[in-house]
Amino acid sequence: MRPLKLVPDNTNIAFMRYRNVAMGLSLLLIAASIAMCFIKGFNLGIDFIGGQMVRTSFAQPVQIEDLRARIGALGLGEPTIQRIGGGNEVSIRTPLPEGGEAAADLAASRVRAAIEQGYPGAKVGAVESVSGKVSQELFRTGAISLALAMFAITLYVWFRFEWHFGIGALFALFHDVALTLGFFALTQLEFDLNIVAAILTIIGYSLNDTIVVYDRIRENLRRYRKMAIEPLLDLSINETLSRTVVTSLSIGIVLTILLVLGPEVIFGFTAAMLLGIVIGTFSSVYVSAAILLWLRLKPDSFVADKAREGIKGAERVAPRTP
Q1: Which architecture, in CATH terms, is 15-42+135-307?
Q2: What are the C-alpha distances in Å from 192 to residues 79, 136, 172, 184, 187?
Q3: Does domain 51-130 have CATH number 3.40.30.10?
């Protein structure tokens, strides 16, 4: 029995022919994502803004406004209530009261009693509490970790290949992170430390795929020294397309199952990962490769000056497609 091949061996898709359309779409989405982040902002989780949060499952449909009025009547500050998924589970977030741990425990008990009294059969989960100082530290370290990760990756690609590739990888990663942040600003899904972990994972996945494409481009630059740069990029992408498709599809299937059937606590993480796989694959094929053309990458970029006149025995043109 012959194994199933999702991508035939003789695939010859002219990806770079549509590079301007793809890059224009990417720039438009990046601009829209940045605007969305400033206009709508993020639904920051308790990890970043501090306070108390409790997840509650109700036995019957609940009106958010009625629940907000009931919790607000406790005098604990303006509550933030958000429905989780499509069921009767909601998260209730209130400011952290002054007075230390004792005051926080008392406030949590009042919230629990109000819910159990007003909504028979409701199941109140454990209360999570984060102080304002800790939340600020988490927000700062999360932002620093993202910036340092992208900077370190850029340096690695720069020294591993050439400066064209370093800039290309950095722009591709910025593209992936910006679109992910824009998605959370648009949907107002809770943005917490789990999402930061998802973004760091997306950066790693996208970089891994980009490095595979870049490595093949470098090999082909050394092999086909008289081949035009645009068909050489198409050749390199097609040669790595099977790996890209199989990897992305296998991970995407698992994440889709988790998104539909998984627990609500990892819904945001799973959604971020699934989106990141899609946009990371797109950026590896179009963004990271197309930007090399804009940066004027030349066919002799990896050939020493003395050897640019030609080395006997080196293959000069691309092999014919069967």
Answers
A1: Up-down Bundle (1.20)
A2: 18, 12, 23, 11, 14
A3: no
